[in-house]
Specification:
Blueprint: E1 9-10, H1 27-30, E2 41-45, H2 52-63, E3 66-69, H3 70-83, H4 91-99, E4 103-108, E5 111-116, E6 119-120, H5 123-126, H6 129-139, H7 142-157, E7 161-165, H8 168-172, E8 179-183, H9 186-195, H10 202-211, E9 224-227, H11 233-247
Parallel strand pairs: 1-9, 2-7, 2-8, 3-7, 8-9
Antiparallel strand pairs: 4-5, 5-6
Helix pairs in contact: 2-11, 3-6, 6-10
The chain binds cytidine-5'-diphosphate (CDP).
Cytidine-5'-diphosphate binds at residues 48-49, 53, 69-71, 74-75, 135-136, 139, 165-168, 205, 209.
């Protein structure tokens, strides 16, 4: 997505700031968000395959907080819809299933986990091509979003998180000062997904995600936009950590 007029557009080409230990940066970071009054929340949004998972995972590890892929929750519910033989286009059947579905969000080694209806999700279920094809229409259903957003907020009320998704800065945690939008050109994103060997029509998902009525993918006005097209993951992570450090007054 192209940044809108007036947005800050920072391209961190050539950024080579030395990695600094966050253990010494500030009280809030130092305790991983657990002992401060409100847990540290880092919101990382962006289109499909922009590299935001990699960045969020590394940022979370550097800060000692939990990495949460909110897309995994939408994927988990989509998997469950398909398992139940429900047509993803049958909104009322999807809503009925949602009402009787339990989600359990946990944590393993600093990474958020999700179980749907008691079934722990693995990459096998979450990255299946039928899930890729059905997830965006299901994520566009307002009731699905309301339910998962409330699970996300509940989860983050108990621990610091670096959460990535589409609406984390705009809708889920609009109060956090730490908002990032990780972008990359459509060509680079398609190539990244192909390199993972995953069948995924990301252009189509992007179209649905950006045009849906309920919390579409947008660039929050106060988010720092990082174009990762020509940057290594390390460079993007360094840029994000530097911005967090700056906001925290270091
Ligand atoms: O990894 P990738 O960026 O391709 O997608 P994902 O983060 O796993 O998200 C899969 C789909 O879930 C997205 O295409 C959106 O339709 C939906 N999603 C959403 O609507 N809101 C979020 N916060 C996260 C994901």
């Amino acid at each position: 997505m192209a940044p809108g007029p007036g947005k800050r557009f920072l391209k961190f080409s050539g950024l080579r700031s030395p990695r600094k230990s966050f253990a010494s940066v500030s009280g809030t970071v130092h305790d991983g968000g657990e002992m401060s009054q409100s847990p540290l929340i880092i919101a990382i949004d962006g289109p499909a395959a922009s590299g935001k998972s990699t960045v969020a995972k590394r940022v979370a590890a550097a800060l000692g907080i939990v990495f949460v892929n909110s897309g995994a929750m939408y994927r988990a519910f989509t998997w469950w819809v398909l398992q139940n033989g429900i047509d993803p286009g049958d909104t009322s059947a999807v809503r009925d299933l949602l009402a009787r579905t339990e989600f359990a969000c946990g944590e393993e080694d600093g990474i958020g986990t999700i179980a749907v209806a008691g079934v722990p999700m693995t990459r096998h279920e979450l990255a299946a091509s039928d899930v890729n094809a059905a997830v965006s229409p299901i994520a566009a259903i307002p009731e699905v979003r309301e339910r998962l957003v409330s699970e996300q907020r509940r989860y983050a009320s108990a621990r610091g998180v670096a959460m990535e998704g589409r609406d984390i800065g705009s809708v889920v945690f609009p109060e956090t000062p730490h908002k990032f939008y990780i972008d990359a050109s459509p060509e680079v994103r398609e190539a990244r997904r192909r390199a993972e060997g995953i069948e995924d029509s990301i252009a189509k998902r992007d179209r649905i995600d950006s045009s849906r009525k309920a919390s579409p993918l947008v660039v929050s006005g106060d988010a720092l936009i990082v174009d990762s097209s020509d940057l290594s993951a390390d460079e993007v992570v360094d840029a994000v950590l530097a911005a967090i450090r700056e906001k925290m007054g270091d």
